[in-house]
Amino acid sequence: MAELFKALTVEEARVAVARYLPGKRPGVRLPLLESLGRRLAADVRAPEDVPGFDRSTVDGYAVRARDTYGATEGLPSYLDVAGEVLMGREPEGTVSPGQAWRIATGGMLPPGADAVVMLEYTEELDCRTIGVTRPVAPGENVIRKGEDIAAGEIALPAGHRIRPQDMGMLSSVGVSEVEVELPVRVGIISTGDELVSPGERPVPGQVRDINSYTLYGAVAACGGEPRLYGIVGDDYEKLKRTLELALSENDMVLLSGGSSVGTRDVAALAIDSAGEPGVLFHGISVKPGKPTIGAVVNGKPVFGLPGHPASAMVVFELMVAPLVRSGGYAAGEKEMREALTAFPLRAVLTRSLHSAAGREDFIRVRLHCKDGRLFAEPVLGKSGLISTMVKADGLARIPPGKEGVEAGEIVEVKLF
Ligand SMILES: Nc1nc2c(c(=O)[nH]1)N[C@H]1C(S)=C(S)[C@@H](COP(=O)(O)OP(=O)(O)OC[C@H]3O[C@@H](n4cnc5c(N)ncnc54)[C@H](O)[C@@H]3O)O[C@H]1N2
Ligand code: MOO
Question: Which positions of the chain have pLDDT values less than 50?
Fold first, then answer.
């Protein structure tokens, strides 16, 4: 067990764990429709141009642009209507100088044509002749062959998390199965003699388990596969057995409770006994979340999250969520950086808050908008109260260099 209770910064804690983790996760092939939210295991290259031909973006007439130059309402360019493009069909013929072909939105441009005149800027003189009342430039109202994506281009890179628009892109290049990373399996263990499950009636001195449920939801929300291992009392042997079982069945394990120093705090000992290198740090300089344990056991991260329910969730957000989203620090460097740096909203703090220098504070805040400005109102209350998380919309960060923030100052906020 190294560096016991030397509090690391979140960044140092991240680096400490990252050194031991494999960068790449195994992949699995899935039907496209099941790929939403999953990370691509490999680059997907477009095997062909999309679209595969020049297409019109409007209803109108396919023309040679130069035939329309100088056209005005007073002096239209007259063109012969020589054909019609049928949807889904290759045009049978060429647009020769002085000719126009009827075309609908999405129709394939006939050879010879390089632009489309919108119907609104034409007048039909008879069924064989139109007058164009406004010129078009080459390429106007046309999506070029390969303009969406060109053959050989990377449509989506490895590691990309698939969104609805990405499913559309994959479908457009003819990919109906994708290789995605297996989700990170996360075992969750709650520790404490005082805990009972939600179905039980606690006797005085007992409370119902909260962290199993918040963490289960948090893992699933990050695209991971959570699995509960129940409540383990403050019993070293039982915790060791449960931890070993959870490690054998998962890629990562979260314990909560039993992380601070106390006579019954056995989490660190149990983690250390499970394998190498064991506990890497015990304590990070954040509030809430100070007594967090970070460990790696045989290539699998293990976190001992603080027992207080709000603290456990905040530390999850900072340390664990990026790992679950990315499946590994090496692969997920981007997600990790974002987790540490992306507090994208700016809001006016509504009351002054104290903070200790050298410590990074994360304040639960409720947001509201007034006169077009965003305000962050701290949700006051101890980190043992889950209601503080329920009332909050997000976290505001007070950087380690500051000893507090005054009411009216701007703070950076991340939404839950
Ligand atoms: N003398 C000190 N006491 C404490 C310190 C300290 O520095 N000196 N740190 C406090 C901080 S900060 C936190 S956070 C907690 C961390 O405690 P542990 O991680 O060791 O967890 P426990 O002692 O087991 O539990 C703390 C608290 O949380 C409740 N809890 C635990 N697990 C659950 C759960 N699954 N669902 C609901 N509630 C849970 C537990 O009943 C305790 O009330 O230590 C402070 N103490
Ligand atoms: O750090 Mo404890 O995690 O404040 O509540």
Answer: 1-5
CATH superfamily placement of domain 345-415: MoeA, C-terminal, domain IV (2.40.340.10)
Buried b (16+ CB within 10 A) or exposed e, 8-46: bbbeebbebbbebbeeebebeebebeebeebbbbeebeb
Q: Is 328 in the pocket of ligand 1 (CB under 6 A)?
A: no
Ligand 2 contacts CB of residue 183 (under 6 A): no
For residue 383, give the ligand 2 atom closest to its CA: 5
Question: Superfamily assignment of 55-143 in CATH?
Answer: Molybdopterin biosynthesis moea protein, domain 3. (2.170.190.11)
pLDDT computed for residue 182 by the predictor: 93
Give the pLDDT score at 270.
Answer: 93
Cβ–ligand 1 contact at 292 (below 6 Å): no
Beta strands in 7-49 (DSSP E): 27-31, 44-45
Beta carbon of 256 within 6 Å of any ligand 2 atom: no
Q: How far is the CA of 231 from the centre of ligand 1 (A)?
A: 15
283 in contact with ligand 1, CB cutoff 6 A: no
Q: What is the CATH number of domain 28-48+154-181?
A: 3.90.105.10
CA 135 – CA 120 distance, rounded (Å): 12
Structure-block tokens of residue 197: 């499950």
The whole-number pLDDT of residue 401 equals 86
Ligand 2, residue 315: give the atom nearest the CA: 3
Q: At residue 246, what are phi and psi to the nearest 5 degrees?
A: -60, -40
- Residue 56 Cβ contacting ligand 1 at under 6 Å: no
Q: What is the pLDDT of residues 109-147, one digit of tens each?
A: 999 999 999 999 999 999 899 999 999 999 999 999 999
Atom of ligand 1 nearest to the CA of 306: 19
